[in-house]
């Protein structure tokens, strides 16, 4: 724990580092010391909008949210250390991966931001997967672009630049159209050098529907940088965007902007070959750093990269905790009707701990946590659904266990492909996310679901923005250490972890649940008729 005089000196001497992450439900900021101890934090709650059949966030909300989180952080700095935050040595920005942000030659946004949550690119993704000989997920930027081309959307003619959310924010702060290699790997396939694959760029350019446009694909993509490289400096305009009070000075070095998957790998120290991590929230993803190529192109496994450019197998699911949050809110409303104003933490802890009394198979209950469509189970749009039979054991413990089981179900289906078909399985996965805030419960369920030991680090609550701050510090550290060496030696040397192994009864119980889950998927798909 750093003392106040030392912290004050770090802030005043321009040695602090800032990490910002735009997640699906919160924008978070963390200010750290040079050795990445947290000094102050700020956050802002926001939500995506479903407009004209598109999941989106407005760019106005992006900047209002960033400024709100930053202002909260600045207020904490002033309160705790009694100094203004005028200079920051290094800054890093991360955000939800993938999606589509398109701009014209005047840097004007052409269409609303199409996020990772949209499953409207089936035709494009299928054609590109065949063309490239590699899996192109529905949420990747090139899939969104090609779908817009196939639909002859007028905006495509005026396209001069496309990027991700992290790339957009970084561009506005620095003027640089760049992207970290991890986030870039969700825009267009990379080659072994960590560059957009030139052969595949040419294949795309030669598509009949693409030839009609004056632009070339390689000219509208951002420039790729790897962890440790300088990605620009905070401009006067950028400083004003971050800090509307005008106190923050320009000049901070910026790290290459990354996706939340990349910061998840950093914050769990999972960038070495054969290491893996799981990040859970509104969506969830598991990452395993590969020591060999996949035997076949798997439609449910993305090939992406670490922030240093190492190949990664990624299983991404669109839905995880949203349905649990909705039920928790319902229980909170019921408690209020009874005159009990319980905190959110009390609600979640009570519900999660009650699963101790559940049957291992959740009593025959089945739940689908699909606020939006789910690629792995081939469900086009969101219809949260709870199913039981007349003989199911319907009680609160089983109900909550079914909710937690369902949150991990598509992830389990995807990871089974990696484990069983590709024979790629790390000895342990390191997990982070809000579902693990109540000790043991979520961690044990995930271990049982994946039949793999799950570790949680004592710093797990710091999450993505802290991981981005680590990348910013690495970019300004002038070290000769590789990224994995830097994390091992400079960041994680003293971090404690707790590991839970799978329990036999829990593993068998989850297998029974997942069989019913797969059997009843036709019910979930039939629910698509509801408007």
Automatic annotation (TrEMBL):
SUPFAM superfamilies: Actin-like ATPase domain
Domain (Carbohydrate kinase FGGY C-terminal): residue spans on this chain: 277-475
UniProt entry tagged with the keyword Kinase: yes
Protein name in UniProt: FGGY-family carbohydrate kinase
Keywords assigned: Kinase, Transferase
PANTHER family with a match to the protein in the record: SUGAR KINASE (PTHR43095), XYLULOSE KINASE (PTHR43095:SF5)
Organism: Bombilactobacillus thymidiniphilus
Superkingdom classification of source: Bacteria
Keyword Cytoplasm set for record: no
Any one GO molecular function term: kinase activity
Family membership: Belongs to the FGGY kinase family.
All residue ranges annotated as the Carbohydrate kinase FGGY N-terminal domain in the record: 17-241
